[in-house]
Write the structure tokens for this entry.
Amino acid sequence: MRPVLVRLHRWLGVATALFLFVSGLTGALIAWDHEIDALLNPSFFYARTDGAALSPLELARRVEAADPRVEVTYLPLGVEPGHTAQMMVMPRTNPATNAPFDVAYNQIAVDPATGQVQARRMWGAVSLARIDLMPFLYKLHYTLHLPIVGGLDVGTWLLGIVGIMWFFDSGIALVLSFPSVKAWRKSFAFRVKRGGYALTFDLHRSGGVWIWGLLLVMALTSISMNLSDPVMRPIVSMFSKLSPSFTENADLVRAGPPGQPRATREQILEAAIRDAKRANLTEPMGALYYAPMFQAYGVGFFAPGRDHGDLGLGNAWLYYNGHTGALAGSSIPGRGSAGDIFMQAQFPLHSGRIAGVGGRILVSAVGVAVAVLSATGLMIWLRKRSARRRSATASNARTTREGSVTS
């Protein structure tokens, strides 16, 4: 049985090593994406003007008036003092061509006191320029910047499959790390004084053993992040009833009389104030989001600057039909079935934000460790592969000599 597991571990490890190396290093960095981005691009984060902020809806109106080609799709409803209001935009349809306007940006930083756009960028662009670096790394982490082909997000699916392979390989690795009950202490040791291959081997084996539980969590949450609807939710629903997700509620979200105009932002916010009271949500409204694919709105509840959720299970969201303005779903941390709460915990666990700053530090350390484990695994495989080739060459040479003597 062990030889079979060794072979499985070898090939699963080789198949996933480069992907996990990239994901580990990028994950270690994007745990601090907001902070690093602010250091690199202060004009995108800090407002130039002191003074009282305009209302969020007024800011959106000014942005759209300044460039009628775009529509604001993500609107922060509260801004940290001294900071910009960071909005997402999408191009409107050009009536002359019936195609979207050609707009070279999808994210803007707005001075909340004046409504002036301070900076623009294409979030997720393949670029190492300072303004683009952190969004580039963030998207690289979960899509590798691979294209969408025939409606299939190739990168997201690929890394989701890598996560599945990693999850099963983690179990195999743990079994292989303890070949002998009597010698179990060796599986936790690092032969630092030996150095060389011995230390490389220990970094891979013992390093993985020490943080095995964390690696398993990261593998599992990687599957949830990339393949939530097609893989994780169906599995979890076998053990606990799940409330319909936003995408599963798509028909309800889109439903509306033919030709009915879209609900206005004002109507959605009025409904959200009313529904938040009914749901006993105590956090302020933090953002308004429009999802054109679903023709739906989302309203998030969080304090300014906490859009990712800095502790616990994250932020509450209410979802609305984009035409009727009717409540069409919700995601409220800590509420629902055991399966609902399990799914709510996936991003907070993966990002470390479930445990605040300490959790993010831990996730960064685990990201570096994943890169080290991937690199040392490849080094061990290459060394053994080279040894096997030398052995095969020597064996063939002996056979040839013996054949020559016999003849």
DSSP finds 14 helices and twelve strands in the chain.
